[in-house]
Amino acid sequence: MQASFSELEYAAKKRVTRRDHILAEIEAVTPWPSLIKVIAPHYPIGGGPGRPPVGLKRILRMYVAQQCFGLSDEATEDAIYDSQAIRRFVGIDLNREAAPDATTLLKFRHLLEAHQLTESIFNAINAHLAEKGLFLREGTIVDAMLIAAPPSTKNKARKRDAEMHQSKKGNQWHFGMKAHIGVDAQSGLVHTLVARQANVHDVTQAQALLHGDETDVFGDAGYQGVEKREENLELPIIWHVAMRPSKRKALDKSAVGELMEKLEHTKASIRAKVEHPFHVVKNLFQHRKARYKGLAKNTAQLFTLFGFANLVLARRWLGIADSQVAP
């Protein structure tokens, strides 16, 4: 297929933008055939009256671009017309065809939500990474991230989202939900995800974040007392939970105190890996607030975001060099 003048001009540009780089990384690390395989049985094939459906590969790429840049359905449609990088990633040539519209993308999202396919996407990505040897199942790190939800009551019901809740962190109140994750202690990749209201305490979700084969689990001070909970009493696990900050500050300068401080420092250095997927989701994918109403829709989105965060984090282990992701 002959390249258009705009594509040739774009290919000749000297500066690689942030958008170029992110999309090139996603393109290089995503196991597209595996994702298409889990969605295809639920995707309409057409053949009846009306407009034929957009090709699955194309609408999936449009959805992935939307998630990577935190765009609404309408903004994603506009971005295809405005951005050569997104247009090329999706596979649209505006000289020959129009971009899929926002309604088509909305229906695709609803299809993914209705059949829990974003969780299937997350699992397919992790299965791909496990085949590469990136999940070593001896240790897990558990943690949670607050995600704010709109507190506005300027809607028909004049109420806030009934499935969200408020929670106090430090001296500040937050309204929204939490993403609880279990992370492989070796690679820092997310293997388990649970979404709950913001007021659900972290320690109550610890057991749900385990895959069952780990021998050691690491958590911050919010997981104090986790080993005493009824659901965890019989688990053959060593819990490495951080000391409360006030107690850590009170450690004396004796040999025992210095040894305990070194132990806390070691545990903190292991737990630091759990911040990497949070960083990708919040800062790279710009997901800082709940986009949809209700836990189900937001949970579905989180499975996609953390699945692709795993791919971004796994890039260095997959041996993908900068030369392979440059446009």
The number of helical elements comes to 13
Mean residue pLDDT: 88
Number-wise, the strands total 6
Write down the overall geometry: globular
Describe this structure in words.
There is one protein chain. With 327 residues, this protein is α/β, with parallel strands linked by helices. The two termini are 18 Å apart. It is globular and about 75 Å long. The relative contact order is 0.14. The chain contains 13 helices and six strands. Strands 1, 2, 3, 4, 5 and 6 form a six-stranded mixed beta sheet that branches. It has two domains: 5-115, no CATH class; 138-292, Nucleotidyltransferase, domain 5, CATH 3.30.420.
Which characteristics define this entry?
single chain; 327 residues; alpha/beta; Nucleotidyltransferase, domain 5; 43% helix; 13% strand; globular
Provide a brief overview of the structure.
The chain has 13 helices and 6 strands. The chain is of the alpha/beta class and 327 residues long.
Question: How are the SSEs placed, and which strands pair?
Answer:
Layout lengths: L4 H7 L6 H12 L2 H8 L16 H14 L3 H10 L1 H7 L11 H13 L2 H15 L7 E10 L16 E5 L2 E13 L5 E8 L18 E4 L18 E4 L3 H5 L5 H17 L3 H10 L10 H20 L7 H4 L2
Parallel strand pairs: 1-5, 5-6
Antiparallel strand pairs: 1-3, 2-3, 3-4
